[in-house]
Amino acid sequence: MSNELMLILSLIGIYGAVIVWFMIFGENGLMCFSAVATITANIEVLILIKAYGMEQTLGNVLFGATFLITDILSETKGKKTSQKAVNISMFASVCFILISQSWFLYTPSENDMIFSSIVSVFSNTPRVMITSLIVYFISQRFDVWAYHKWWNFTTKKFGDPKKYLWLRNNGSTLLSQLINNVLFTFGSFLFVYDFKTIIDICISSYVIFIVTSLADTPAIYIARYFYSKKTVKSNQMT
Predict the structure, then answer these.
(1) Which domain holds residue 118?
(2) What is the pLDDT of residue 93?
(3) Are strands 54-57 and 48-51 parallel, antiparallel or unpaired?
(4) Exposed e or buried b for every residue in 124-161, given b needs 16+ CB within 10 A?
(5) Is 234 exposed, middle or buried (0-12, 13-18, 19+ CB in 10 A)?
(6) Are 133 and 94 in contact, with CB atoms under 8 Å apart?
(7) Contact predicate 35/88, CB 8 Å
(8) Which of 78, 89, 156, 190 has its CA 20 to 30 A from that of 150?
């Protein structure tokens, strides 16, 4: 299967999973999914692939999903809940770093066959994940702040808080993804790859982020529709 097709299927599958988790588990499901996506993306990002004529790292779709999650929570539950999701994902990442690094303190059995492979993967993880934690905190906090700034603007301008969801969603995400992309790429890969490769990764990753940001617009409308329908039903039953 081609890398291009895999990326498209990943986008559909991961964004679809966000909606399903929200429908089944509500805000707690999104917080859990955000933590899983943050940890997994920081492992995936170690893999460099070529797709659509560009060199890029994996993890872009999962990183995009975390921004979708904070926007859904901002839209349905408010600023404090979306910030709580960011904090949970950060603490989950810290726990993963500590646990994964503790594995190296063990002496493997002479019959062990995978310890060296684990070391080769997760020995690079601390730098990536520590960089990610700092960048994640900055970009996600900015995303939540920008989302509500756009929301206040559209509400005052058009008098309806439900209108122009696509504008506040994309307006906040595209800016925060730019911050995330530049800081993370240079923080994680400076002195690992040559400067040209880093620039290529930065450009290609942001192109992917633009696509993932625009593609999450239907997902956030579906999530809001589901939440509104569920709220109305709850109010009718009480």
Answers:
(1) 3-237
(2) 86
(3) antiparallel
(4) ebeebbbbbbebbeebbbbbbebbbebbeebeeeeeee
(5) exposed
(6) yes
(7) yes
(8) 89
Q: Tell me the C-alpha distance between 210 and 174, whole Å.
A: 7
> Amino acid identity of 135?
V
In the structure encoding, which two tokens stand for residue 13, read together? 């599958």
- Whole-model pTM? 0.88
Nearest to 187 by CA among 124, 111, 131: 131
Query: In the numeric block, which tokens belong to residue 97?
Result: 């770093």
C-beta atoms surrounding 72 within 10 Å: 27
Which residue do the tokens 């599958």 mark? Answer: 13
Angle between helices 125-158 and 3-44 (to 10 degrees): 110
Of 56, 76, 88, the closest CA to residue 209 belongs to 56
Residue type, position 230, single letter: K
In whole angstroms, give the CA distance from residue 3 to residue 54: 11
DSSP state string for 72-137 = HHHHHT-HHHHHHHHHHHHHHHHHHHHHHHHGGGSPPPTT-SSHHHHHHHHTSHHHHHHHHHHHHH
Check if the beta carbon of residue 59 is closer than 8 Å to that of residue 67.
no
